[in-house]
Design brief:
heterodimer, A: mainly alpha, 15 helices, 6 strands, globular, B: 250 residues, alpha/beta, six-stranded mixed sheet, 10 helices
Chain lengths: 350, 250
């Protein structure tokens, strides 16, 4: 694999540039933009979760928004009921574990029940819509968990992440979110390069074949689904904490499809591409929302269609590939460098 | 690899490697395999032949665990494996090359080998093992290529290399030369014979009688899900009943 030489790749360079930009950015701009970018980072965690489950394991899930909502609501319920120093940090853990556990249970029944491919998409979409419908009818005063009122479409007001009694704000919040985003990104990249990650890569192409090489395919599917569920829940937790608020629209149809579009446009097989694409498109989405809100979804839909039709690997990944060929001089995986040598070897087979 | 194991002179157990006892498989009203008794000894190279629909591929699916027998028992290396999932059988040394190439077209050749070998080769030995196996199946220098860009024959060889990378006790080859030309078929035959000479027990499903003549010591003829005949290739070829089933007379 020659991993040492493989480090100098467009994808890695792009990550370093992205990280450097993100580190410098808050020193150059105002408080509003800093907080706004923190919001992008919270949502981008969901794109990372989707890139992991869809790009690395071939499981297209529309349920990431459901786990996002579960994370956000559970964070709110916990932190509204348990006060005191450190409660919000435990709340993060509660939200993430709730999302991961829900995904593990759903994943167990799906994958051990033989549900795969497009049916996973349908099942997870149903989960998202059921959760949204359920949360939407919780406006009445009877829908409380301890001190936490679910509040239907009026939304639940949640505490912000705090150090002691002081809520994090501005640059500290920004750098916390950046640390979490980069930490999760590096964790997922590391996992994708392990034996387990290679197994995921293989099972998305051919599950029965992968099992004949000794991989417990169904268990691996449940594991990656739970992992991605936990990351999506973390996204929901950070979102709820950032705005001190979460409501059922975060689990709607549009919310379920948006991260799929971000990841498809960037390139689902690359965590780096998905992360950068999500950050850029969120910014674009926000700009369009103020300039031409009626066109925002149409434009993203068209971009996604163009990606599917002409650049199926994704626009950002296509740029990475082009840079790899032209600047880093790495041979394309599709080239036959020495067909004559192959033929000669073939003749010597045995 | 197996050859290295032989060097340390492990005692070879007397028990057969694979035993199918009274195995049947029904698909609805169709009985694909019927009360089959099959024993494969250690170190054997046996060919399974028979007309289309004889149940050959179903037998392989039962052995690797893609299908469970309706009745009967399968024992591998002394353990009853009927209830074992496919992945557990693989970790015990059962390896298969499927009829339709079971390679990963979107991964590179090297990654195909890596995926196959990961449960059986330690990390620091991986690159050396991959290079050695690719050389063995005649694919040196193709490691970085996308597998979908290999020719059909090369994909077949790659899959044999992948099946070998798990250090198999028993290698199942389902039509390993399907779609190959005469030269490629002969080279594949030499490869199979050399693997067996190194101590790998091999069970081959094959229609190409030239290849069967080239490699087989024992031939088992399946017909309507049962063993119809068994013997050396010379005995099978002069058996008029076998000719009749191929011509549809039985």
């Amino acid at each position: 694999m020659r991993r040492g030489a493989a480090l100098l790749r467009a994808e890695n360079v792009a990550f370093v540039v992205f990280l450097a930009f993100m580190l410098v950015y808050p020193l150059t701009t105002d408080e509003f933009s800093i907080l706004n970018t923190a919001y992008f980072m919270a949502i981008t965690l969901m794109a990372l979760s989707l890139a992991m489950i869809w790009g690395k394991a071939g499981i297209l899930s529309f349920g990431q928004t459901a786990f996002f909502g579960i994370g956000g609501y559970l964070y709110g319920i916990y932190t509204l009921n348990v006060l005191g120093a450190g409660a919000t940090w435990v709340g993060i853990l509660v939200g993430v574990l709730a999302g991961a556990l829900t995904a593990a249970v759903l994943g167990y029944f799906m994958f051990y029940g033989g549900v795969n491919d497009v049916f996973v998409g349908l099942t997870t979409l149903a989960l998202t819509l059921v959760l949204q419908t359920f949360m939407a009818q919780t406006a009445g005063p009877e829908w409380t968990v301890g001190e936490a009122r679910l509040n239907g479409y009026n939304g639940m007001y949640t505490p912000q992440i705090s150090v002691g009694d002081i809520p994090l704000f501005g640059r500290p919040l920004y750098f916390l979110y950046l640390g979490i985003l980069v930490g999760v990104y590096l964790l997922l990249r590391w996992l994708a390069g392990t034996r387990w990650g290679y197994g995921l890569l293989a099972l998305q192409e051919n599950r029965p074949r992968t099992e004949t090489f000794g991989y417990n395919v169904r268990l691996m599917q449940v594991q990656v689904f739970a992992l991605a569920g936990g990351v999506a829940a973390l996204s929901g937790v950070l979102y709820a904490s950032w705005g001190s608020y979460i409501d059922p629209s975060s689990m709607g149809l549009t919310a379920a499809i948006t991260p799929v579009i971000y990841v498809a446009i960037g390139g689902r097989r690359s965590l780096t591409a998905a992360m950068i694409s999500s950050m850029v498109l969120l910014k674009l989405s926000q700009s369009l929302a103020s300039e031409a809100p009626q066109y925002a979804l149409v434009i993203f839909g068209v971009l996604a269609l163009l990606a599917v039709l002409f650049v199926p690997e994704g626009f950002v990944v296509a740029i990475f590939n082009a840079l790899d060929r032209w600047i880093f001089r790495r041979p394309s995986a599709g080239e036959r460098v020495a067909p004559s040598e192959v033929a000669a070897d073939a003749r010597r087979a045995g | 690899m197996r050859g290295e194991r032989a060097d340390v002179a492990e005692p070879i157990p007397e028990t057969p490697l694979l035993v199918l006892k009274g195995v049947s498989k029904r698909f609805g009203g169709l009985r694909a395999v019927s009360d089959l008794d099959l024993t494969v000894g250690r170190g054997e190279l046996r060919c399974l032949i028979g007309p289309n629909g004889a149940g050959k591929s179903t037998v392989f699916k039962l052995i690797v665990g893609f299908e469970r027998p309706t009745t009967g028992a399968i024992t591998f290396d002394g353990a009853e494996i009927d209830a074992w999932p496919t992945w557990r059988r693989a970790r015990q040394g059962l390896s298969i090359k499927m009829q339709i190439p079971g390679v990963y077209p979107e991964l590179t050749v090297e990654d195909n080998m890596r995926v196959a070998a990961q449960h059986h080769v330690r990390g620091e030995q991986m690159e050396e093992a991959i290079e050695r196996l690719l050389a063995r199946v005649g694919l040196s220098g193709t490691g970085h290529m996308l597998t979908k860009n290999l020719s059909h024959g090369e994909q077949q060889w790659l899959e044999i290399g992948m099946a070998l990378s798990v250090n198999p006790k028993l290698l199942l080859l389902d039509e390993p030369t399907a779609g190959m030309g005469p030269g490629e078929t002969e080279a594949t035959g030499q490869l199979i014979a050399s693997l067996n000479a190194d101590g790998v027990t091999i069970l081959v499903i094959e229609h190409d009688m030239a290849l069967v003549r080239q490699i087989a010591r024992t031939v088992t003829v399946l017909h309507l899900g049962r063993i119809f005949a068994e013997g050396t290739i010379a005995e099978i070829e002069v058996n008029p009943a076998v000719t009749d089933i191929y011509l549809g007379k039985t």
